[in-house]
Automatic annotation (TrEMBL):
MF-aspect GO terms: glycosyltransferase activity
Reactions it catalyzes: IMP + diphosphate = hypoxanthine + 5-phospho-alpha-D-ribose 1-diphosphate; GMP + diphosphate = guanine + 5-phospho-alpha-D-ribose 1-diphosphate
Annotated protein name in UniProt: Hypoxanthine phosphoribosyltransferase
Stored PANTHER family: HYPOXANTHINE PHOSPHORIBOSYLTRANSFERASE, HYPOXANTHINE-GUANINE PHOSPHORIBOSYLTRANSFERASE
Record's keyword terms, sorted: Cytoplasm, Glycosyltransferase, Magnesium, Metal-binding, Nucleotide-binding, Purine salvage, Transferase
Entry keyword Kinase: no
EC number, UniProt record: 2.4.2.8
Pfam families found in the cross-reference section: Pribosyltran (PF00156)
Gene assigned in the entry: hpt
Record flagged with keyword Magnesium: yes
Source organism of this protein record: Mesonia profundi
Length: 176
């Protein structure tokens, strides 16, 4: 068990399980994008660890870009999603959005809106973690690493008020 700020978290997903999920997604993308050069669009800050891990497993050509949006405060998702770092030069490209986690899907809906405005050639969504009970949006997730229950997690890029992103495995909030 670990303590971050005022809350306790218990070990939930091991390094090895994460590595396997990343490898599975990398090989699925390789199969789907043979002969193409997709742009991996990482969503900061949380996806940095996933982008780093995935890009090292991916053996085809790819470009790596980042965008930054913000919707989370503390352990609760809020509806107002803001764009803090926008996308550039994606017109006509095959984009794969890389998300750390899809929860309510508000962030994803905003990103999809932006990609459509940018007139990308195609886009798909890859997420390392997914909370199916919390997701209420229409868009299909193309590549899913690990499905998890609707509980707050930290580690492997995911933070609790700024801390925990550097943890190499994932921890789940311990209920009192
Ligand atoms: P959504 O818009 O799908 O509700 O979630 C947007 C973002 O909130 C995610 O990309 C992630 O950065 C953050 N988030 C969602 N669920 C969790 C969680 O369980 N733990 C942490 N640390 N962040 C989360
Ligand atoms: Mg995120
Ligand atoms: Mg956060």
């Amino acid at each position: 068990m670990i303590k971050i700020h005022d809350l306790f978290f218990k070990p939930f997903i091991s390094k090895q399980e994460i590595a396997e999920a990343v490898k599975k997604i990398a090989s699925q993308i390789e199969e789907d994008y043979q002969g193409k050069t997709p742009v991996f669009l990482g969503v900061l800050n949380g996806a940095f660890a996933f982008v780093a891990a995935l890009s090292k497993e991916y053996t085809g050509d790819c470009e790596i870009e980042f965008t930054k949006l913000s919707s989370y405060q503390g352990t609760q998702s809020t509806k107002a999603v803001q764009s803090l770092i926008g996308v550039e030069n994606l017109r006509g490209r095959d984009v794969i959005v890389l998300e750390d986690i899809v929860d309510t899907g508000h962030t994803l809906t905003k990103i999809i809106e932006i990609l459509k405005e940018e007139e990308v050639a195609s886009f798909k969504i890859a997420t390392l973690f997914y909370k199916p009970e919390a997701y209420h949006e229409a868009h299909t997730l193309d590549y899913i690493g690990i499905k998890i229950p609707n509980k707050f997690i930290v580690g492997f890029g995911l933070d609790y008020d700024g801390l925990g992103r550097n943890l190499p495995e994932v921890y789940q909030l311990k209920e009192k």
